[in-house]
Amino acid sequence: MTILTIVYDDRTNYYGGNIKADRGLSYFINGENLLFDAGRDGRILLDNMEALGVDVKSIKKIVISHDHEEHIGGLFDILELNSDIDVYGLSSFSPDILKKIKKMANLIIVEEPTYISEKIFSTGPLGKSIKEQSLAIKTGEGFLVLTGCAHSSIAQIFKIVSKKGNIFGIIGGVHSLDETDIFMLKNLPFLAFMHCTPIEEIEKISSNIKKIGVGNVIFL
User: For the Metallo-beta-lactamase domain, which residue ranges apply (predicted)?
Assistant: First the structure.
């Protein structure tokens, strides 16, 4: 079983501890010891992780979708506490950010669809003006797609993931949608949207959307 804990998001419906919502995105994949994105504010990220029982020392891999502030802002706060980490980034990141990561951790540049572990692979950099990578987790029902902002479009992400197998759901931010994206999303059995997603627009697609935010735990 894969357990995904949302440790950073713009919204929360969790009230069981010292949890703070803030603009950004980050999730911890338990069992894989993998953090996907790192929110905007390192202090908020670390406090949320502590409240949710995620030990910063347990993190072995960090995948950053793209180098916008609300996705990479807490990265260096984590690396100051735990430098024994593989950071999966993109060559499109700013030179200063890449240089800083190299000084603090083991930087791995993702150039194409790449397996991060036996169950998880990166789509590699997608998009034109904003390069971004998404993740896909293999489950018993198919692949669950994890996005940062999906700037490249759902259609482009799904095109890559579908080459590996069936897609059963998506979780994460979706910055914008067109008719093709909506068509591809509306019949998926698992839909959970966060961060930059236009919620009012997405709710018109399906009544099957999970209400989630920072503090929620998803069992796959």
Answer: 23-81
